[in-house]
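Practice problem: SRPBCC family protein
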Amino acid sequence: MKTTNKPIITISAVIASPVEKVWELYNGPAHITQWNFAIPEWHCPKAENDLRIGGKLCSRMEAKDGSFGFDFEATYDEVIPHQKIVYTLTDGRKVMINFDELEGKTKITTQFQAELENPIEMQRDGWQAILNNFKNYAETKS
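Answer key — structure tokens:
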């Protein structure tokens, strides 16, 4: 991934499921709403995903009590089924997600450009918590 003046953060998780199933659970809008939040007090009430170059990913993340929420939106730059996704967030930051098959398991590695408003550790921890939530969800669906 090209670097700019924004630091690159890397997170990963190994999911005990084959890559085809992981891909489906990671990208299906009905599945995204089940795992796309960092803490139990939040949820993802809606998601849309047009998984193709030029397509859009849109999801809504919000506190269950309605006190705060935001839209997460990106445009796909590269999609290699069961292997790699690259997208650009609405603020111009890049995200790259690799899916590596490991003998019936799948390792997801996400690299993303940090934003400059919040501490790096906070961003890493938040994205990792969402990925861990996905891992837990995917492993119950396997």
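Discussion: The two ends are 31 Å apart (CA to CA). Students who identified this feature from the tokens alone can consider the problem solved.
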